[in-house]
User: Fold these one by one.
Assistant:
Number 1:
Amino acid sequence: MHWVVFLRAVNVGKANRCQPALIAKQLSRFGVVNIGAVGTFVVREEVSESALRAAIARKLPFKCEIMICPAKEIVDLVREKPFARQPSGPDITRFVSVLAKPLRATIPSDSHQTSNLKHQTFELPLSLPSDDDWLVKIIAIQDRFVLGLYRRQMKAISYLGKIEKRLGVPVTTRNWNTIEKVVGILRQDSQD
């Protein structure tokens, strides 16, 4: 099975520094492709999740959450075009937060359904700090993916950190552009 790997809290500020490109090179036997500087990898060769997790952990000089998703889940997520009806522009960033483990409920965007995750109840979309003046907006939660938007303002970063607290599981966040790059590599592989 092919995988997509997301490392949590890597190369943010001065903490948990590593060289993802070097890690990918060291794990070339698994066909690992590095995307960016924060620990996003596409794994092109067949390997078990447990063997992959152990190999990556051995290459890191620190402990961190390693989120590993089947490549098909990422491709399916992009295929659904979850941001098709959402605002866009230079001041808005589309993001995906990947959870360490799937949540029990799937909550589609624009559903206004109530989520009861870890005894936290909220409706989607969830706008932080408020509906009228949002900096972060969660539009959907699908298994282990939280989809949302944030405004390019410094305060938005603190609200992104609140996603993890609200859901009660570790998360790592990536720009939607990164997810699209991942899918581009996976699609290229399927054409080869």
Number 2:
Amino acid sequence: MWYLLSFLVGICVGSFLNVLIYRSTQEGLRVWSPPFSFCPNCKSKIAWYDNVPILSYLILKGRCRSCGWKIPLRYPIVELLGGVSFLLNFTVFKDDLFSFVLACLLSSSLIALSFVDLETMLIPDFLNFTVLGCSLVLAIKGDFLEHLISFGVIAGIFLVLKLVYREGLGSGDVILAMGVGLLLTPFSGILAVLTAAVSGILFATITNRKNLGLKLRIPFGPFLALGGYLFFLLERGTGWF
């Protein structure tokens, strides 16, 4: 029952994250204004029965009821990721409500910043600092010295990389790396960064091949978020690291 509830809450939060992602990438929009969902194409207000996470997308066959605009697949994907992440968080932290809430806030921020980065090549500061704040509190609840060492190591690596590759690495990536470093212990932190690097290289290779060898800029934030969250769950859920 609680597992199902955590998943359902997660997909509802994922629906809100879609609003956050879209409005964070548009000039003149705020998360809270207007206080209702609307179609990005025809601007018509979306009725509550067309705004049920995942289910409405399936019923409407991925199109706006008013104008027939094709709704990007990103919307149900983000909702599903929200549900899965909340379910995983509950599996790991079912005996610690405070850590569960922090983990949900953390995973939600990582999902949102990943999709904003994919669309804009930028990571909003408010999402990065939310990750940092959650990481700090979770670190305090664990072996803080180990997390502090990890923070120093990862932050040092990325600050050096930023100096060497000024155009290839954004400040947002460096701040996110600091959050990941603080979230993890040294060994899992290094593994998270390696996982991010390998997955990013693979993605870039596949993408460039599909674009006839054209060199494209690839955002690093989503891969760093994936590596950090994956090893966070492994570290807290299994105690392997």
